[in-house]
Amino acid sequence: MTEREVRVRFAPSPTGPLHIGGVRTALYNYLLARKLGGKMLLRIEDTDQNRFVPGAEEYILEALAWCGIVIDEGQGVGGPHGPYKQSERKPMYKQYADQLIADGHAYYAFDTAEELDAMRARLQAAKVPNPQYNSITRAQMRNSLTLPEDEVKALLDGGAQYVIRLKVPRKEEVRFQDLIRGWVVVHSSAIDDKVLMKSDGMPTYHLANIVDDHLMEISHVIRGEEWLPSAPLHVLLYRYLGWESTMPQFAHLPLLLKPDGTGKLSKRDGDRLGFPVFPLEWHGTDAETGEATISRGYREDGYLPEALVNFLAFLGWNPGTQQEIFSMDELIQAFSIERVSKSPAKFDQNKVKWFNEHYLRAKSNAELAPYLLQALHEHAIVCSQEKAEQIVGVMKERVSFPNDFWQEAKYFFQAPTEYDETVVSKKWNAAVAAALTAYAEALPTAPEVSAEGLKTLFNDTMAAQGLKPGQVLQALRVAVTGAAAGPDLFETLVILGVPEVTERLRTAVATLPAAA
RNA sequence: GGUCCGUUCGUCUAGGGGUUAGGACAGUAGAUUUUCAUUCUACCAACAGGGGUUCGAUUCCCCUACGGACUACCA
């Protein structure tokens, strides 16, 4: 085969918010496309009108963009193979189903839902291990294989409801080579006569997927392992449609599992375990109660996209070196489908958090300041860019998320209303209060102060009071911030400014019990 | 039930016929720090079980167990 352009696609269904596993699938597609100099397509698979959820498509676009996954061609971008939404491609599929019928690889089936249920019930009663519409049972059903030709024609002409099913051969080994798993072999007897065209005239996933991948000249299909069982069916479809020579290469990704126990990571696990399973926050409605629900998102929880991407990339893949921190560009350079593992991975909250802390600390103060400024804005507090940068500068080593800045740095903007009890009871006494008063009075009035200067002054003042700095430091922190812990105290004082510090010291001395 | 896929520290994983089975996260301990955090150092901890093949198997093969996916006119 000649060198083919690499074209991969991410093809989600707009049935709700994009799951974090879907994000990883999209990411691997993207990495492979970029690595091999190919194209990344986005196709919306909305052939099931019943499951369509408004806003889901926009969500998918926004989530991918937030992660830095760039779509070269497809929904929201356009391109030469449009439209990229299957509902808009509806008229294109019928001819392929007709072709399959003409070639004897598919047939019309007129069975009602009740008849299908009855068939399954009958087979179940007869202890048939796997009740399905297949090469054996189709002989008992109402379809164009069993009905006389003129009756079929009459039904069709009379507008009877029908579906088109694939005529899967009785005995045949279907095999294909999976890029991750090697040869996968399935006997055709295990595959049922899948519906290709539904009675509403829409194709099912299987037909639409194969037709679109072929028409869009997809070279690699990278998708979740849940598709592995139907891959042989897809191979059959390519073959019967006469497209086997350009059939894409398959790669089925291992699943993402719940952090605890086992099983596929699901929407509910996030709520249960307290971490997001969606990239962005999602406002939906409960399917049963109809109540409005909010699902947490990584973005809103304060995760940086580069941290999420780095973490996700390593869930099921690794470069074979000891390096763990990778930018998107580095991932592209290092990625290879051969190094994707076969076994499923459990989602590890600690590891994502660690990645987030890493990327947070790697950011400049100027990049981080907006997060604090945003929170301040919400609390109607005015603050200069410069001061915000100073604060995030001393704070970024001690927080996990940008959202923590406000909570941790509150006291820079609000004088403490209460003081840490443990420190007060242990470290606060009349002598300390007096020493702090002395320090407050000794504080320079000049606007230019340095942490070093304040520290020296503190040490000198304490010496004059006959106290060791260590005896008073904690009390000073509590008096000024109310908290028992925080960044370097004298840096904190500098940011606060002398007038504010003086004021807070006076308040503390007046408020706190001078006993003991 | 059937078909298919999988199984190395608690977690993500490297490795691979002969290794002290390596790293990271988490955990623990210590150092640093005025405090907490950071940082640094150390420690803890794994080849699911049973059969083969082999001089030798965690690595190759088979079986078992366990886990998972699929089994719709859903994707």
From TrEMBL:
It comes from the Bacteria. ATP binds at K267. Residues 375-508 form the Aminoacyl-tRNA synthetase class I anticodon-binding domain. It is an enzyme of class 6 (ligase). Its EC number is 6.1.1.17. A motif ('KMSKS' region) lies at residues 264-268. Its main location: cytoplasm. InterPro entries: aa-tRNA-synth_I_cd-bd (IPR045462), aa-tRNA-synth_I_codon-bd_sub2 (IPR020751), aa-tRNA-synth_I_CS (IPR001412), aa_tRNA-synth_I_cd-bd_sf (IPR008925), Glu-tRNA-ligase_bac/mito (IPR004527), Glu/Gln-tRNA-synth (IPR000924), Glu/Gln-tRNA-synth_Ib_cat-dom (IPR020058), GluQ/Sye (IPR049940). It catalyses: tRNA(Glu) + L-glutamate + ATP = L-glutamyl-tRNA(Glu) + AMP + diphosphate. A motif ('HIGH' region) lies at residues 12-22. It is found in: Cytoplasm. GO terms for molecular function: glutamate-tRNA ligase activity. Keywords: Aminoacyl-tRNA synthetase, ATP-binding, Cytoplasm, Ligase, Nucleotide-binding, Protein biosynthesis. Residues 5-273, 296-354 form the Glutamyl/glutaminyl-tRNA synthetase class Ib catalytic domain. Belongs to the class-I aminoacyl-tRNA synthetase family. Glutamate--tRNA ligase type 1 subfamily. Monomer. This is Glutamate--tRNA ligase. It comes from Hymenobacter mellowenesis.
